[in-house]
Design brief:
The protein has 271 residues and is an alpha+beta fold. It has a domain of 152 residues: Jelly Rolls (Sandwich), CATH 2.60.120.10. Helices cover 21% and strands 22% of the residues. The protein has six helices and twelve strands. It has a five-stranded antiparallel beta sheet. Strands 3, 4, 7, 8 and 11 form a five-stranded antiparallel beta sheet that branches. The chain has a two-stranded antiparallel ribbon with strand order 6-9. A hairpin with a 5-residue loop joins strand 7 and strand 8. It is elongated and about 95 Å long. About 4% of the residues have low confidence.
């Protein structure tokens, strides 16, 4: 019993060490992966999305995603999918039969890998580094192993790699106002460039970003980049001087930006 406990503890320590080392290594390789040819990694075909029966997330945070990968039953082929980021396989190998599989590519080509029989043994750790793996599907012809393996790689969410970018963005401030700038980066950005983001202003107000001399620049109206609930109208309308702007025909008129917006929510005449 004590030997079993020591072996289990050793396995856990090795696994933790591998996770830490692989996370650092994969983050260092991130720019290589991010600059890859995207044609082999179409949206919607991540392994967990496209082939969920053989790929299950058992752990994920902002640094690493760990999948439990299982071999499909004999005579079946898993759906086409890809692994976009570098990763490594971790397996407790006890020998025995290797499955006969066929590796299918989207162009119709197939790589046949016949099964093998190897002597069984008490077990050793088996680790294999994997580059980004484009679209493919595994067909199991026969002799599958029942054991599953772990595949650890980068997380699939944008924020998983760009948390620091998100936290350090100050114009406009993102982390200070997640109600306007959530961590779903793809809502505004694409995978080509950070600049040129498309912010859906109309989901919050009907006031146009092209109003007057705003020229679609947020800072024209929102003078506090960390709080976009604050806005100004009077800087452009009256130069912040109530004597320069009169509403003699409006009862109870007070010269301030909130009152301006209450009457002119669309930037047009009185509302």
């Amino acid at each position: 019993m004590n030997r079993s406990k020591r072996l289990l503890r050793a396995r856990k320590l090795v696994l933790i060490a591998l996770f830490i080392a692989s996370s650092l290594a994969m983050l260092g390789r991130y720019f290589y992966a991010y600059g890859q040819d995207k044609s082999g990694f179409p949206d919607g075909f991540d392994a967990v999305q496209a082939a969920p029966n053989s790929h299950k997330v058992i752990f994920e945070n902002e640094f690493v995603r760990v999948l439990e990968v299982t071999v499909p039953p004999p005579g079946t082929t898993e759906p086409m999918h890809h692994h976009r980021w570098p990763s490594f396989f971790l397996d407790w190998d006890t020998g025995g039969g290797r499955p006969h599989i066929r590796y299918h590519r989207p162009d119709g080509s197939v790589r046949d890998s016949p099964g093998t029989d190897e002597p069984t043994h008490p077990g050793t750790w088996s680790v294999h580094w994997m580059k980004p793996e484009p679209m493919h599907a595994i067909e199991v012809v026969g002799n599958p192993k029942s054991a599953s393996t772990l595949r650890a790689g980068l997380p699939t969410t944008c924020i998983g790699c760009h948390q620091t970018d998100y936290n350090n963005t100050t114009n406009p401030g993102h982390s200070a106002q997640p109600q306007f700038f959530p961590t779903t980066c793809q809502s505004c950005h694409n995978t080509t460039a950070w600049t040129g983001a498309a912010f859906n202003h109309t989901q919050y107000t009907q006031f146009p970003t092209s109003h007057g001399n705003a020229n679609n620049l947020c800072a024209t109206c929102h003078t506090n980049s960390n709080d976009y609930s604050v806005f100004q109208c009077t800087g452009c309308h009256g130069g912040n001087n109530p004597n320069n702007f009169q509403h003699d025909n409006v009862s109870g008129y007070v010269y301030n930006s909130i009152n301006c917006y209450q009457c002119h929510p669309s930037g047009q005449g009185g509302g």
